[in-house]
Design brief:
This protein is of the alpha/beta class. About 45% of the residues lie in helices and about 15% in strands. It contains 16 helices and 13 strands. Helix 9 (about 220-230) packs parallel to helix 10 (about 245-255) and helix 13 (about 295-300) packs across helix 15 (about 340-355). It starts with a strand and ends with a helix.
Length: about 375
């Protein structure tokens, strides 16, 4: 059996595509049972447990000891849950999950699933708020990187960060960018959605899909979009996000050309298919430099070229090499945009599915390597 361990990760579209669907793929490729073990907030336990079990019925969902500062106190629960496996194989998502596994088991086969530069996120965005974990996250992340037996990294840039910051030597590391959920494998006709929004065939619709986290750089994005909307009268923007003052200001400045939608995860593919370009514009810092935003894969899979800023994980270079969008730097205005033909959008979609679908042999081979790494024995 393989255990996929998460800690303090709330149910979301990302949890579905990067945990639930990955566990299902690993089970298919290995023939072994892959069990998601999710420690979730006690406050939201009922809701989180219901969602996870609906999507992955054999999961173990456990309420955390209240307060993330007390993460170590969950060790006894984890030891009891895995008590029948003397040397468990554990994929641990994020540094806290990995440290929990390392603290609990001396001889387990523990693979660190690194999703980002967590110490840098704390330094740049104070992601842990007033929690004491933020004071120790550098050492927590360092131990996860250096003491795990093998690693998954979402980008080569993340491996470079580990090397520079922790003197990491990459020997048993597999690079797997964030891949698509199954919802994005079906072709969708976006025209009815486009018509519902009131956009014509002459309009060029930009899509922003994402949370309101600091690294989405809303203030600088607002300035860029305001300039682009003023200079290109056919441009329109749809934000797939919650409310934000920057969006409200753009709606006030450009009536009828800026929309905001908040959708269920399964409704996003059809909505993205109604658009023409995806936006992935962020500030230049370490958090973004190592990242692998799943939205990049989602845009491409819906036929949207990506307007991307420099140094976004490995994706800025990917856009240049694969000619699947526009790369802009801090001084560049938006390029003059035109709508793509249906054939051109299909070509973009094929690029997305080839590189980021879990049905792709590229992605499946990477996870086969993960399975091989979990088998090896070394001290």
């Amino acid at each position: 059996m393989i255990f996929y361990l998460t800690f303090n990760d709330a149910p979301s579209g990302i949890f579905k595509s990067q945990v639930i669907d990955v566990a299902a793929l690993l089970e298919t490729l290995s023939g072994e049972t892959v069990k998601v073990v999710a420690f979730v907030s006690a406050r939201n336990y009922k809701t989180s447990s219901k969602w996870i079990l609906e999507n992955r019925p054999n999961s173990w969902v456990v309420p955390m000891v209240p307060g993330i500062d007390h993460w170590e106190k969950n060790s006894g629960t984890l030891r009891w849950m895995l008590r029948h496996d003397s040397r468990p194989k554990i994929i641990a998502r994020g540094p806290l999950a990995c440290n929990l596994a390392l603290r609990t088991f001396e001889n387990a086969r523990i693979m660190y699933d690194g999703r980002g530069a967590v110490a840098a996120e704390e330094e740049e965005y104070n992601v842990f708020g007033n929690s004491k974990v933020g004071q120790y996250i550098t050492e927590i992340e360092k131990r996860a990187v250096l003491e795990s037996r093998s690693q998954i990294a979402v980008s080569q840039a993340l491996v470079n960060y580990w090397t520079e910051r922790f003197a990491f030597v990459s020997e048993h590391t597999t690079i797997i960018p964030c891949s698509l959920s199954d919802d994005f494998l079906t072709t969708h006709d976006g025209q009815p959605v486009r018509e519902k929004w009131g956009f014509s065939d002459q309009d060029i619709v930009l899509a922003f899909s994402g949370s309101l986290s600091g690294w989405h750089s809303f203030d600088s994005l607002q300035q860029r979009l305001n300039t682009a909307l003023l200079s290109q009268p056919k441009l329109a923007v749809v934000f797939f996000s919650k409310e934000h003052p920057a969006i409200e200001e753009l709606q006030h400045q450009h009536p009828g050309r800026v929309r905001r939608e908040w959708l269920n995860h399964q409704d996003v593919p059809a909505a993205l298919s109604a658009c023409d370009y995806g936006l992935l514009i962020r500030d230049k810092n370490t958090t973004n430099k190592v990242s692998s935003p799943v939205k990049f894969a989602e845009y491409l899979s819906c036929g949207l070229p990506v307007i991307i800023s420099e140094e976004i994980g490995d994706f800025s270079t990917f856009v240049r090499i694969n000619n699947c969008g526009h790369l802009i730097d801090e001084s560049n205005d938006f390029p003059a945009l035109v709508r793509l033909s249906a054939l051109q959008k299909e070509d973009i979609r094929k690029i997305g599915l080839f590189h980021f679908s879990k049905a792709s042999e590229n992605v499946r081979n990477a996870y086969r390597n993960v399975l091989n790494e979990l088998k090896f024995t070394r001290k």
